[in-house]
Amino acid sequence: MFTNLSVEKGRSGVTGVMILVAIACMLFSAQTRAESGFFIGGSVGQAGLQLNDGAPVVPLVFDENDMGYKLFAGYNWQFTILSLGVEAGYVNFGKPGANIPGLGVLEVETTGLNAFGVLGVQLGPIGLFGKYGAMSWDAEATFDGLSDPDGSIDGSEPMYGVGAKFGIGAIDIRLEYEAIDLNADGISESDVNMVSLGLTWTF
């Protein structure tokens, strides 16, 4: 009886080891895929818009936040510790609004298509990165209170970002800060930024 019990325990131990080895192989394979390759992702976060028309007497000052989001894709090359990548995507900085005394409610929705070069450092599952590129943007403004409230401006300007990520196999959790100066005509200050949290999948 004790012999049979020992055999059963031995078989259970072997089965457990085989399961652990299989899981380790799967995780290793996932980590290998995550090092270099195509990736897709999405993020949500808080976007801020700062406007100042620079008027000498009564300037129009706007500094508001709203929820923004972005969708992106790219390719990453991993070289031991350093990594290089390219990334492109669509971003919506939300539609922040504010009541401008004596004028009405101003709401501005800024969207854009961007492209970046990305340089990073990978330390185990943790990575740090910076990126620089450009965004083609469009800003739609609605001014509730004027006879002709709506307007639209667009342009293309440099954009940059910094961030950190934590990898779990082929999935990265990514925290980022991105910013752009729109350089809108007739406005002395027109800055947009966003802090976001998202996921990427490398395949």
CATH-scheme architecture:
Beta Barrel
Total number of helices: 1
Rg measurement, Å: 25 Å
Order of helices and strands: HEEEEEEEEE
The helical percent reads 10-25%
Mean pLDDT: 81
Strand order of the largest sheet: 1-2-3-5-6-7-8-9
Short account of what is shown:
This protein is 17% helix and 65% strand. It has one helix spanning 2-35; strands at residues 37-52, 61-79, 82-92, 97-100, 104-123, 126-144, 151-168, 171-181, 189-202.
How would you characterize the overall build of this protein?
The protein has a single domain, classed as Porin, CATH 2.40.160. The chain is built from one helix and nine strands, in the order H-E-E-E-E-E-E-E-E-E. It has an eight-stranded antiparallel β-barrel with strand order 1-2-3-5-6-7-8-9. Strand 2 and strand 3 form a beta hairpin. The longest helix has 34 residues. The chain is elongated.
